[in-house]
Amino acid sequence: VEAALTEAELEQRVDIFLSETDTLWMLDLPTAVVSTEAEEAGRVLERNKIYVEICNAKIDSEYFEEKMVQTISGAAKTKEVQCETITTAEKGMMVTSWDFDNSLDASEKESTKTEEATDTAEKSSKSPTAEEHSQAVAVPSATESAVPARSHEERECHSETILTSENLKQDLVVMERILMENIFQPKLAVYRQIPVLIEPVVTSDTSMEEEEDEEEKKDEKKQEETSSKPSSLSDVNESPAEAAAASLEQLWSYRCDLTRGHSVSSMAWNKVNPDLLAVGYREFVSQDQKEGLACCWSLKNPMWPERIFHCEHGVTAVDFSLASPNLLAVGMANGHVAIYDVRSRSHAALLDSSASLNKHTGPVWQLRWVQQDRGATGGDRKERLMCISGDGRMTQWFIQQRLDCFDLMTIKRTQSGKKKLPGEKERKSEAPISQQAAGMCFDFHPEDTDIFLAGTEEGHIHLCCCSGKEQILGTYRGHKGPVYKVAWNPSSTDVFLSCSADWSILLWHRDSHTPLLTFTSVTAFVHDIKWAPKSAFIFVAVNERRVEIWDLSVSVFDPVLSCAASPGGNLSSILFAKNAQCLLLGDSCGQVGVWQLHNLAAPST
């Protein structure tokens, strides 16, 4: 019986040393490359003995370290073999998944047949009774019914693996793009300004002769009509503007079942890929905010977006980055800002402002990536994300491990004072500020990125500066309703436009606090305006039902074109195409129509 240990012995520290025991070699067969009967066997044994002595001498050396190396293979033995020439041939065949299933079924049927044959042979030798004979007949039928059931399950599993494979999805995307390009080929050719390919009609000889006769008769009728009527050049009453009036032709629309019922809030082109378009969607039903969408559309498939990002709240603003073209910034109606990576197929946001302490409390009505140093190139070019919100704050966001911001400016609500006389200068009000004014839009100067315009809900436009003590350099008062959009002229950089809910469009000069021109054609809200990218006189505006094209070189009273471009809903946003003479119009039904511009004036700076 073992003696019990005391408490002192239990608490005593005991050191246990583990050491490696000697290796017991059960069998050791050293490799031999050279035969012992060869002539060089003695020299090889002597070299091996010297090598063993060198290894034993370097065991305790500090400059020696044992490593595994690749040994030199021994010399190949010479052998002479005589045989017939070996002929090779290549053979191949197409095998589908159905062939594998058929071969599997055939092998299972053969195995069942052999089992049935052996069973019948054994039972026939035993002279079975009537009951045994009936059982022997019933057993094969059960096995035959089990084999098709098993093969049916295997077929279902195999079909599921095929349908869920990534290779099949990628092949279907490529096939879908090919079909879409075939369907939309004439429209895409017009968009890219290349000749339209027309398929030749194959007909018989008799039908070709009849068609030629009909074409000759049509040409004769046209010649008679033109000879009877005066030509357009000789007609005195017809002006050249009427002869070549501006017009719009719809090519296609970006729409799908997901976007139906949503309203297009904003659009933005990718800075590097001019065929990639980002569209933000929101939906308001009985003052309740529903889920929003941010979709990336491509010219390769106008029927379904390439990327779909579902947002908890309505999307109010989108814009692509220039420094990192794969980053898409999205502003939402609840004040959140999210950044998505369009290269990834994940629907989750790369960065989100939900954890930021300085996040907006009102809707983010507009956001934009702005270059900080336009003259710099390469790595010296910096970019900042600017946002304006309904909480009266203009913020600048910085991207690190998380998304956070700081206030660039706080828009204060101005008190209503007495009306100014036409020649009286604007005076600064020293009255106490009651509350903040909601910001609606902004636009940075095309040449000086420190200067920007900010439109407010109370109808004022502030000229602001990012650097300096005084943030607000001046205020332009002319609108009686919320300012929905402001836009600098890209050619004449001292002139800018503004549109408002008071049904008017105002043309301003930077040095004048009174509008130069007022454009009003219909009694409807003007939601968006855009200058033509290559002309200083042409701009486009959209109100609730119509799109208007104004050319200041032709008339300042009436637009050169005014037409209804969305019969099913109200127009909400507008965008010019980068590499085509086209116009994109977004409406409240979730459609983005692509329209071709015809007979516009030549670009003038």
From TrEMBL:
Composition skew (Acidic residues), residue ranges: 207-217
Listed PROSITE patterns: WD_REPEATS_2, WD_REPEATS_REGION
GO molecular function: dynein heavy chain binding; dynein light chain binding
Stretches forming WD repeats: 476-518
InterPro entries with a match to the protein in the record: Dynein_IC, WD40/YVTN_repeat-like_dom_sf, WD40_repeat_dom_sf, WD40_rpt
Keyword flag rRNA processing: no
Subcellular location as annotated: Cytoplasm, Cytoskeleton, Flagellum axoneme; Dynein axonemal particle
GO CC aspect terms: axonemal dynein complex; dynein axonemal particle
Pfam family, one: WD40
Span list, region Disordered: 105-162, 204-240
Chain intervals with Polar residues compositional bias: 228-237
Claim: Repeat is one of the keywords in the record: yes
Assigned keywords, A-Z: Cell projection, Cilium, Cytoplasm, Cytoskeleton, Flagellum, Repeat, WD repeat
Record-linked SMART domains: WD40 (SM00320)
GO biological processes: cilium movement
PANTHER family given in the database record: DYNEIN AXONEMAL INTERMEDIATE CHAIN 4, DYNEIN INTERMEDIATE CHAIN
Stated name of the protein: Dynein axonemal intermediate chain 4
Species per Swiss-Prot/TrEMBL record: Falcunculus frontatus (Eastern shriketit)
Top-level taxonomy: Eukaryota, Metazoa, Chordata, Craniata, Vertebrata
